């Protein structure tokens, strides 16, 4: 029995060690990822339901490492948040997205772009100025940029969050509350939050609980986007619930900027 226990301890140690080493390696590599040009953005269309016409796009960060291959944002974003790199990454994303957006607008496309903002960025002093600088540098009208904040940000200090969002909104950008319904809070807080757009989490779409949230969102004067529409059945349910905007694999995967642009162009031609 004793040796059994020992083996188990060793197994556990090995698994822990592998995880820790991956983490340490990713952290180290991520520090140089911007300079080595390993990051890029993909754009997932937000469409008018049940149509396929894109009205906007969410910018999603991608990391392609020469040796480690593709590393997903679900793995490296939390890491970047923990080790203090998220602000640098976020600044890069913001500039990249504004640059791309300015080109699409210059070509006459009627489109907006959203970027994800981590709580740590939102609460950093100077973030509002950073947003203003990015808009100015790329000549992007503020209302064409959407900043997506998550419900996690709500659970911390609501008053502080409200102040932050107000300041941001004064620049003219629109705010989307991301992943709505994924947590527990918020139905009550929603009324108080200065947001423009409500993004209904994928998990609510799957559980067919969309209608009440859509109605509530519209009652509060918000635009409502149903996320994670991956199947025809979900599409039908979301449309039935009165939701006018949607995003998901069914209407378009996240794609490189050129591919999204091709969709914009085919949507505008007769
Ligand atoms: P999110 O903001 O909720 O983004 C939506 C995620 O759902 C994306 O995953 C997208 O690829 C995925 N998705 C799209 N359509 C469907 C669908 O029909 N079904 C399902 N099951 N999933 C769908 P992705 O790109 O892996 O990003 C994961 C998360 O990483 C994002 O979740 C966001 O929280 C974070 N993230 C990505 N890019 C950035 C960034 O630039 N900054 C920050 N702070 N976070 C980011
Ligand atoms: Ca998002
Ligand atoms: Ca989301
Ligand atoms: Ca073009």
TrEMBL record:
Residues 23-268 form the EAL domain. This is Bifunctional diguanylate cyclase/phosphodiesterase. It comes from Phytohabitans kaempferiae. The chain holds residues 448 to 717 of 756 of the full protein.
């Amino acid at each position: 029995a004793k040796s059994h226990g020992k083996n188990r301890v060793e197994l556990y140690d090995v698994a822990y060690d592998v995880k820790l080493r991956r983490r340490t390696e990713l952290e180290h590599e991520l520090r140089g990822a911007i300079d080595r040009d390993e990051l890029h953005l993909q754009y997932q269309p937000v469409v008018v339901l049940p149509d396929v016409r894109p009205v906007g796009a969410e910018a999603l960060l991608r990391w392609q490492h020469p040796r480690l291959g593709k590393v997903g944002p679900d793995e490296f974003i939390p890491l970047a948040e923990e080790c203090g790199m998220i602000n640098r990454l976020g600044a890069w994303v913001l500039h990249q997205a504004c640059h791309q957006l300015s080109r699409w607008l210059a070509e006459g496309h009627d489109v907006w772009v959203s970027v994800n903002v981590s709580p740590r960025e939102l609460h950093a002093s100077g973030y509002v100025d950073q947003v203003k600088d990015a808009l100015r540098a790329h000549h992007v009208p503020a209302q064409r940029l959407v900043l997506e904040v998550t419900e996690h940000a709500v659970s911390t200090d609501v008053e502080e969050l409200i102040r932050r969002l107000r300041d941001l909104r004064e620049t003219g950008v629109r705010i989307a509350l991301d992943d709505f319904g994924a947590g527990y809070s918020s139905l009550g807080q929603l009324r108080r939050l200065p947001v423009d757009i409500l993004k209904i989490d994928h998990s609510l779409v799957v559980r067919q609980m969309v209608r009440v949230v859509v109605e509530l969102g519209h009652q509060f004067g918000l635009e409502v986007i149903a996320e994670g529409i991956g199947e025809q059945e979900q599409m039908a349910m979301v449309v039935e619930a009165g939701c006018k905007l949607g995003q998901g694999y069914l209407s378009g995967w996240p794609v490189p900027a050129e591919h999204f642009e091709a969709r914009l162009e085919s949507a505008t031609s007769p």
